[in-house]
Amino acid sequence: MTGATGMIGSNIAKLLVEGGDSVVALVREGSDAGALEAMGVEIRRGDITDADHVLRAAEGAEYVIHSAAVLGGPTQNPGEHEQVNVIGTGYVLDAAKQVGAKRTVQLSTTTFFDAKTEPLSEVSPLDPDPSPDPYTQTKMRAFIDAMERVERGEDIVVVISGGAYGDSPLPERSMVVPSYNARIVAAVRGELSENVAFPIPWVYADDVAMCSVLAMRKGVAGERYLGFGRPEDVGGTPMFCNLACEVAGVDHRMREVSVEELDDPEVAARYGPTLVDLARKQFPDPFFDNHRTVERLGYAPLSLREGLERTIPWLRATGLLSPNLRR
């Protein structure tokens, strides 16, 4: 595994260990992997941008799950995105082939698929005019590389995560920007008053982890699977945070930033290029249709309310959210 210290990755590792699999994780020097080791994960230290490190970590692997990535935050370093999301992903796929792994599960994102007029699905085409931000561009190139490898006979499946939130074996890591857990906490504290809005297919982190494990076991080479929550729970960050506030029992609510307000450079800078571009796009209703994922994998995610009803108590129990915050 790569990305095992992340929120989704740590949940994947947990599910695999609970299912009886032996799990090896490539983890950078200096990263705290104590919780993973306590679960029984073998840690091999190294960097995804070093081909030799990746190959050593993959030795003996029957399957490879690649969830490491540089995400799309308010500020983006093109060089860092290139090194991790493109070059690093290439090293992972190279290593999987060299060690003879049966299948690689590559996690990806929604941002470079065309969902302007038809609901996003497992067969949506690439967006002919994708956002130019480094995150979108590098993740798209990694996806294209994977599909070209499939055409050459490699067994790779892609799991596309929605907006993931929820509990994690590594609580502090679940709060790393651009974490939706961190936004829940800020909203419940009354520290987040507004945000841009565009359709986000919210998903409880353990559900997208389960989708990844199911794709590993039941998937078909070259297919994509949408690790989302339920179609009726799609909505913008203000809707998500307001429901979290309701579940948490606080009165604070957020407002939605209009597209017109994003014409102000100072306002746009607060959200970064990926979010601003998404906020300006038009999307279909419903936003997605993942019936193939549900039917092929037997995937059954929680509703958004159910996920938040598990997440809020967990945030309080871990001390990430004060247990005293009420109306």
Notable traits:
single chain, 327 residues, alpha/beta, Rossmann fold
Query: How big is the Rg?
Result: 19 Å
Major sheet: arrangement of strands: 3-4-5-9
Helix content: 40-55%
> Helix- and strand-based class?
alpha/beta
Approximate strand percentage: 5-15%
> For this structure, what is the CATH homologous superfamily of the domain at 7-175 and 202-230 and 286-302?
NAD(P)-binding Rossmann-like Domain
Shape: globular
Q: Secondary-structure element sequence?
A: HEHEHEHEHEEHEEHEHEHHH
CATH architecture of the domain at 7-175 and 202-230 and 286-302: 3-Layer(aba) Sandwich
Low-confidence stretches: none
What is the CATH first-level class name of the domain at 7-175 and 202-230 and 286-302? Alpha Beta
Number of helices: 11
What is the subunit organization of this protein?
single chain
CATH topology of the domain at 7-175 and 202-230 and 286-302: Rossmann fold
Main sheet, how many strands, which sense, barrel? Answer: 4 strands, parallel
Span between N and C termini? 42 Å
Q: What would you say this structure looks like, in words?
A:
This protein is an alpha/beta fold and 327 residues long. It has a domain at 7-175 and 202-230 and 286-302: Rossmann fold. It is 42% helix and 12% strand. It contains eleven helices and ten strands. The chain has helices at 7-18, 34-39, 51-58, 78-99, 134-151, 180-188, 205-218, 237-248, 265-280, 291-297, 304-317, and strands spanning 24-27, 42-45, 63-66, 103-108, 156-161, 163-165, 194-195, 202-204, 224-227, 255-256. The strands form four sheets. The protein has a four-stranded parallel sheet, sandwiched between helices. Strands 1-2 form a two-stranded parallel sheet. Strand 3 (63-66), helix 4 (78-99) and strand 4 (103-108) form a beta-alpha-beta unit. The longest helix has 22 residues, at 78-99. The mean pLDDT is 95.
